[in-house]
Structure formats: C-alpha cells, structure tokens
C-alpha cells in the first residue's frame, strides 16, 4: 500500500490523542504493532523513555555468542553501506534480543543517530522503543520498514528504518540487519529499494552462516526452480546427515515447505520423503563435483527443481570456494548466468589488454612458490580473481579459505585466523575451534583487505609464514601447515609502510608479485562487460538496454566497480517492464550521484574517495570544473568538448591529457573513439 507522509502524520496524531490507530492509511503490520505496544507492552508513545542499554562487556559477550556469523555480517554490512552511501543511512547489526552490536554510520548523520539511540549497546525491542523496524521484525519474523511517523514513540519519528531477520539453520532467530536514516526528503516508496537491499544482505549472511556451521559433517543440497539461480542468495539449502535426514534448513527451504510438516519444521525428515533422491544419490552426485547441476523432483507438490550437492568438509572431496557450493561453469557466450566466483581466468580477462597481461603473468607463476598481492579499487573483482587463480592451480581440489581482514572485528580476527583451544576465553566453543590458517592447509588462504590487518596480527602472521606452523590461542600445541597465500587490498601498502601501519618485512614476504586490477571505468571492454553482466543478472529473461541508458552506463564512473554494476543491473532487471531497461529503472541515489560528475565522468564530490594503490607517487591532477553531468541531457556533446579542450591544451599529448582530465590513458582512448576524435587533434598555437 502506498503511504504518503501527510496521511502517516495525521494517523500518528490520532494515535497520540486517542491511543487508537484510527482510520488512516496505516499498514496492517504497523497497526498491529501499535496495538501490541499499547495494550500488551504498555509503551508510552508521548513521553521519551530512557534508553535500555547494556554494558560494553555484555556487547562483547553477545558478539562472541554470534560466533562465525560476525565476519560474514561485517562483510555484508560493508557492501550494503557502499550501495546506499550518501543517503544518510547507518547500517547496523543486532542480536536476537534487538541489542545493537555493530554499526557502520554515515559520518554526516552519525552524531544525530547516536543521539537517537542508534548506537551499540542500545535495545530496540518493541517493549523498549515501541514500533520500529528492528523490534517489529523481531516480533513478526519478517522484513519490515517503519517510515518516520509509523514509529510508535514520537521521539523516534525522525527515523526511517528497514530491517530483515537472520535465522540459524534450525529456524531460530539469530540476528537482525538494519539500515536507519534521519535524512529528510525520503518517501516510503524509496524505502522499497532499501528494504530489498537489506533483505538480500541478510539472506547472504544467513546462507554463509548456514554453510559454515552445517558443512563440517553434512551434505548440502542447494536447489531452485531455475537452473541459473542455484548457488545464489535466493536458492533453498538443506543440510543432510549420513543417515539421509535433514538437520538444517535455510529460510528459502522453510518457505517452500512451510505447511507440509508438523510445526512447520523439516528437521529430522528423511530426504527421500521430499525428493525423488536418496542419500546414496546425493553422495554420488557430490563426488562428481559441487559444480554439477542436475534436475530433481519434489514428491510432495510435483515440482521440478535444479540442484547441486557438495560433500562435507571432512569428506575426501573438498568443495570449491569458501565452503560454498558453486554451480557449473558457464562461458560469457552462454545463456545461463554465472557468479563472479565461477569465472575462469579467460572469462575474467575478457577483451581488455591490461587484464589479459595480468592473466598471462598469473599462468606463468600459479604453481610456483611466488606469493601474489592483488591490488585495485573496491569491487574491481579481486576476490573473483583470487578464486580463479586457486581453481587454475594444482591445489584446485583442496580448500579455498577466504578471510576479509577488514570485516572481522579486531577482538575476533585473531581467533578466526589462528583458532583457539577449549576454554581459551569466555564463550569459547567446546572442544576449541580450528582457525582459517589451519583449515586452508594444502589449499589456498586468501587474505582479502590485508592492508587493514592490525599490526600485532601482522607480526603473528609473519611468524606463521616463516615457520609454516600455527599455534591456536590458549594452547601450546604447534600445528604444521602447508600454506599458499593470496592477498588483496585497495590500500596503498608502501604508503602504509611509510606511516608505520604495515610491516615492511611482511610486505616483502607477501609481495612476490603485485598485480593491479584495472577499475571498471578503465577497461576497454566496458560495453561487453555490461552486456555479459546483464545476461548474468537477467537469467533466461530477454532483457535489453535502450541506447540512451547504455550511453549513461558507459559514461558513469562506477566507483563500486563490477560489484556495483551487477547490483545496479540486478535491481533494474527486477523493475524493468517489457524486458527493456531505461533510466527510470535505476535507483534514485545512482541518478543523484551522476548530477555531481563532470562531463567526462569523474566525480567531483568529497564522497568519491580516490585510491592510488600501486604507485604511491602517482597523483592525477584534475582540472577544475563547474559543469555537471546530466544523464538525460546532451552528454555526448559536452564530453566531446571536454576531450577536445584537454587534448588541445596538452598539444595532443595523450598522457598529459589523461592526467588533466583525471582519467587513465585507456579510458581516454575509449572516449576519443566514441566521440570520433583522432589521436592527433589540432594543437594550440
């Protein structure tokens, strides 16, 4: 139901005056929450209640209880914050009791949000805050948006919040992921896009946690009605033990069979009572490889699915990826879409000469004792490249263990990397925990965002690399490991060394070769990448992009690179009508961002942070400009004029013109070609 702010305001006034929701256009979920807060919980809607807050110690203990979910959640929070940056949102994670444990705040609104109680340690259960996205999502177990005056308490009506629950493999509530903003000018219709992003991020965290916690001794069955969606965030996953009984389900699986079993639970049910498949079939399929996709039939509803299976981590067959089952390989020319983690080296290279040169180097050193650092901007595909390198190497049938050094809290990263023994700290898992380093032995350890690793951990890591031995926390036991380490970073490591933030000896130990992946805007095959990504995101649907929109995509700066491109196309495919994407199908924040770009595509706002990774001395001079990029205006003409002026100023020197424009040489050549400019333009006299 579409709600306008005036209707919401009058409805809230009716509530304040009479304690009743009245006849205003209030969503039934909100109305029920208001009634619950008033009649059952006795929450005051007009008086500001004191925030219910737990101690820092309690917060740390709650984080430890969430355990393995933390690194996955932090990574997804970072990605989500990037997608909605500039909109005033704080992305936050709470436990099942609604206690905020972690936040990523927009610096402009951070103080205002903290003053409104959006900070670690504060409870947002309905009994403490009234109707709000976090508390209402806890009560309903459903994704929820609460828009300004839909909040029960008057002092919370400055906020607009969208929250989605995260469940454990048994179906119990584990955590809540939320995005909250006090920014003015937003409408509830805009929140549909934000809620979709929050929901997708929550499902990603849930599925990664499912695989991490259930894949140790169980077979995983992943299935979807469409072949190309197997292995994506919206596929169903079952964990099956050696007896053929279901011991874990994700949300999608529970939704598919919600009314078929007592109490709605599939736990303990034999797999052959649901699908025409036995545990021996599952084991046989898993032994053929986790990338094999095959059809299965649902006995209960006579529905056809496509599925993959993967063996337990303890089984002799190791799944590829971070314990995640990946679907079959697909070439860029095929109709079925693929995920970045599926691409081989040739597919990653595309038609771009720079990337092809990188691939040539990788092939020569992939099985030699040469460590690799992948550098490049956020979203440029470093993680996909790392997995492709692993799958090309002789270690391809051994584990690929990925660790994001920036996403794991400092209090947990040491135990995640090195493991711990029983009783090493409060909340330690019984029997201890194998660290990522030990788990990667024989395979590949991928240390993403290595530049964000704490200095004290750098020292321990260097020792492990030098000795090939690891010692878990709280233990004197020495465990030998067979390590192959890949690293990635968007940071300038030589500069961090100069500032004393990164160890020089560790850098030289890791940097056998440093390979810088080009930004999306610098790739010469950008149009082909857009078309390929569109195939990946549209599936079997025939979706195209109109000419003006393609021109916009080719000239947009893509600060989030390939990750941002695929997110934008995924959303546009869902919104587009008649199978054709136009400018109206893009989110408002993307279009607003382009208003602050120059005619040749460079962002001129402070939010567009620039990173120079490989050459700390390289600084691109930028010409001052007051022009703005208007996606529906005369873009081509404005861009051509900017190119001609820069080339004339630099007497046709491509290198100097590229620096003047603040773009790379390859981008300049591509734009010159599109504008019909020769490589020897008229020179100033």
Structure description:
This protein is of the alpha/beta class and 685 residues long. 38% of the residues lie in helices and 13% in strands. The protein contains 25 helices and 19 strands. Strands 2-1-5-4-3 form a five-stranded antiparallel beta sheet, sandwiched between helices. α23 packs across α24 and α24 (654-661) packs across α25 (665-675). The protein is globular. The chain starts with a helix and ends in a 10-residue tail after the last helix. 46% of the residues are buried. The model is unreliable at 1-6, 316-337, 596-635 and 681-685 (pLDDT under 50).
Strand order of the largest sheet: 2-1-5-4-3
Strand content: 5-15%
- The poorly predicted ranges are 1-6, 316-337, 596-635, 681-685
Terminal-residue CA separation: 65 Å
**Rg:** 26 Å
- Helix and strand content put the structural class at alpha/beta
Instruction: Report the average pLDDT across residues.
Output: 78
Q: How many H/I helical runs? A: 25
Helix content: 25-40%
Shape: globular
């Amino acid at each position: 139901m579409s709600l306008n702010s005036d209707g919401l305001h009058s409805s809230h006034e009716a509530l304040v005056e009479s304690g009743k929701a009245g006849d205003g256009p209030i969503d039934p979920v909100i109305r029920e929450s208001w009634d619950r807060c008033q009649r059952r919980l006795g929450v005051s809607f007009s008086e500001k209640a004191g925030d219910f807050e737990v101690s820092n110690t309690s917060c740390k203990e709650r984080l430890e209880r969430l355990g393995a979910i933390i690194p996955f959640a932090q990574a997804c929070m970072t990605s989500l914050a990037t997608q909605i940056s500039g909109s005033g949102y704080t992305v936050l994670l709470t436990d099942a009791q609604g206690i905020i444990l972690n936040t990523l705040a927009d610096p402009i609104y951070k103080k205002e949000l903290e003053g409104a109680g959006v900070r670690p340690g504060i409870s947002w259960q309905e009994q403490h805050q009234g109707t709000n996205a976090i508390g209402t999502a806890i009560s309903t177990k459903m994704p929820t948006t609460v828009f300004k005056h839909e909040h029960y308490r008057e002092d919370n009506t400055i906020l607009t919040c969208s929250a989605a629950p995260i469940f454990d493999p048994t179906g119990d509530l584990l955590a809540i992921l939320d995005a909250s903003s006090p920014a003015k000018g937003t409408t509830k219709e805009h929140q549909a896009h934000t809620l979709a992003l929050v929901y997708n991020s929550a499902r990603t965290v849930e599925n990664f946690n499912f695989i991490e916690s259930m894949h140790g001794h169980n077979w995983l069955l992943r299935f979807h009605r469409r072949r190309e969606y197997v292995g994506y965030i919206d596929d169903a996953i079952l964990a099956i033990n050696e007896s053929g009984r279901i011991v874990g389900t994700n949300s999608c699986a529970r939704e598919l069979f919600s009314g078929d079993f007592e109490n709605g639970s599939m736990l303990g049910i034999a797999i052959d009572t649901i699908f025409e498949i036995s545990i021996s079939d599952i084991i046989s399929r898993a032994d053929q490889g986790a990338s094999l996709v095959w059809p299965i039939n649902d006995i209960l509803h006579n529905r056809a699915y496509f599925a993959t299976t993967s063996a337990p981590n303890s089984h002799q067959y190791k799944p590829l990826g971070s314990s995640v089952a990946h679907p079959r390989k697909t070439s860029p020319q095929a109709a079925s879409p693929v995920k970045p983690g599926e691409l081989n080296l040739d597919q990653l290279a595309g038609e771009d000469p720079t990337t092809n040169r990188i691939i040539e180097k990788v092939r020569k050193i992939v099985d030699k004792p040469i460590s690799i650092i992948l550098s490049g901007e956020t979203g440029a595909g470093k993680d996909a490249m790392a997995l492709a390198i692993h799958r090309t190497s002789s270690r391809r049938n051994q584990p690929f263990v990925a660790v994001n050094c920036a996403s794991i809290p400092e209090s947990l990263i040491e135990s995640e990397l090195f493991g711990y023994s029983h009783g090493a700290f409060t909340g330690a898992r019984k029997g201890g925990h194998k660290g990522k380093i030990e788990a990667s032995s024989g395979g590949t350890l991928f240390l993403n965002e290595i530049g964000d690793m704490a200095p004290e951990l750098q020292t321990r890591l260097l020792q492990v690399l030098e000795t090939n031995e690891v010692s878990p926390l709280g233990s004197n036991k020495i465990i030998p490991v067979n390590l192959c380490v890949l690293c990635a970073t968007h940071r300038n490591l030589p500069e961090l060394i100069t500032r004393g933030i990164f160890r020089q000896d560790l850098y030289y130990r890791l940097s056998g070769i440093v390979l810088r992946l080009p930004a999306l805007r610098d790739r010469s095959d950008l149009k082909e990448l857009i078309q390929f990504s569109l195939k990946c995101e549209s599936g079997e649907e025939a979706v195209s992009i109109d000419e003006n929109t393609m021109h916009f995509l080719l000239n947009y700066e893509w600060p989030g690179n390939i990750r941002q491109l695929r997110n934008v196309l995924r959303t546009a495919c869902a919104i587009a009508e008649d199978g054709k994407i136009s400018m109206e199908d893009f989110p408002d924040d993307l279009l607003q961002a382009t208003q602050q770009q120059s005619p040749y595509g460079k962002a001129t706002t402070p939010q567009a942070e620039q990173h120079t990774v490989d050459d700390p001395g390289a600084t691109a001079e930028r010409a001052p400009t007051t022009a703005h990029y208007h996606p529906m205006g005369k873009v081509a003409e404005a861009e051509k004029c900017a190119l001609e002026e820069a080339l004339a100023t630099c007497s046709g020197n491509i290198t100097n013109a590229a620096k003047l424009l603040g773009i790379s040489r390859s981008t300049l050549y591509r734009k010159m070609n599109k504008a019909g400019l020769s490589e020897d333009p008229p020179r100033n006299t």
